[in-house]
Amino acid sequence: xxxxxxxxxxxxxxxxxxxxAAVQPYGALLxxxxxxxxxxxxxxxxxxxxxxxxxxxxxxPLADVLMILAVxxxxxxxxxxxxxxxxxxxxxxxxxxxxxxxxxxxGPRGRLDAxxxxxxxxxxxxxxxxxxxxxxxxxxxxxxxxxxxxxxxQAEWEGHCRLFALQMRQLSGFARVMVYRFxxxxxGEVVAEEAELGLAPYLGxxxxxxxxxxxxxxxxxxxRHRQIPDVAAVPVPVLAEAGYEPDLTLSDLRAVSPVxxxxxxxxxxxxxxxxxxxxxxxxxxxxxxxxxxxxxLPLQLRERCADLVQVFSLGVAGHQTNxxxxxxxxxxxxxxxxxxxxxxxEECRDDDYRIRDELLALxxxxxxxxxxxxxRRPVPIGKTPAPPDLxxxxxxxxxxxxxxxxxxxALPSLYPxxxxxxxxxxxLLVVRVGAFTGQGDERIERRFLWxxxxxxxxxYWAGDPRKSTLFxxxxxxxxxxxxxxxxxxxxxxxxxxxxESVLLSAKKFRNLLLQxxxxxxxxx
Length: 524
Hints:
This protein is of the alpha+beta class. It has helices spanning 6-14, 46-50, 54-57, 62-67, 75-86, 136-139, 154-172, 214-222, 258-266, 299-328, 331-346, 353-362, 387-400, 411-414, 500-523, and strands spanning 22-23, 28-33, 41-43, 98-107, 110-118, 122-129, 176-182, 188-195, 206-207, 225-228, 236-240, 271-279, 282-291, 367-372, 379-382, 405-408, 427-436, 443-452, 457-462, 469-472, 477-480, 486-491. The chain contains 15 helices and 22 strands.
């Protein structure tokens, strides 16, 4: 859809972000192997934060390093860290488990907060300035009760998103906060926004999938938040003992990809802060915070914002569940009745057009087709293509998509002849029900097709998605797009997408028909 250079996509996906071997300069990093408390790596700026350069601490146990500080560290917390490092990592689903320790040590730059993370093989301890006293109250601010309310209607859902964006902006202090949802095709859309007066609105704009490569999405899925306080900050190298390559997958301080830095600069963003919304282990979307000047947010405040996001994610999950329940209420009874009477439609014996309407309503479609492997003429219902076109479409489906359930909301892009009738069949849902007769390998198969008409869409992109990537011939490197001016695209050959509830109804319908076919075969 965005006509991207495949080479650029491959380059982005091959960029080993977790092996970048550098951190942002707003803190210090220590690391080693799980089960071994000895330090195997440290950021080059360690002396600025702990008073000891990396070469003095490399190979020493973490507890010893923290205890040699001029000002005594929290001995109980150090003991906890050592115990965690020595034990096996917890099973991960969604966000990785991390341990936050406030005011762990006192260094040359004052009190430092710490966050400990572990992969299956490596541990990291990251230190950064502790939360100032005058901000302690913000970190303890309770989550507003309104965010715990479950949205039921679409209007309540939109209001819920707006309220959340407002609360996040007040807590974080960023100039812009956006609720960014991923769509089924991988693109992202801003569904709620709170911003300073004078900033151009991004609400409703769509961003191509290439803006956030899959490797970056995986990192977002594993980490609750990602901070870039200053895009102009110079990265600090991570020094490691010979043969050891630090894994920064779970690092808060991890340095930023040059491509992403340029992307933010093109957006005129100086500081960014992102929080991931994860549902059932999958990345639903992001909460993106932008600012026009450097803005580091202390660890405890970031964690408090992440707690707010966690409450918001409960609202997302609840809203999705409620939508499914509403869509499926009373549908089981209708599906069962339809399955019992479907043979009358196939034999053209029905005089009750209500059954035809129910078949269309099952998939919220304008047309349907019933066909079988017995050679009988397909039965069209509602708005369907001409018989020769239907026959050709059925042959293509038999060859290209023999699976039990198939659906698309862009049939002409998969089957070009459908462009001739895309006004009535841009969307296609197919259910196949087959059973063996018991006479050798003879098999009876019934096919049910539902058709949806073309629904032209006007999409507002944040910049021309066809120019998502550029190649700089002078520097011989790939760069992100530089324009985010609103760009309109009219999409044709697409129908309204098939919802999760419709697909679930289609699966139930198929299961009931399969049970009926098998019962008939047993009786005979």
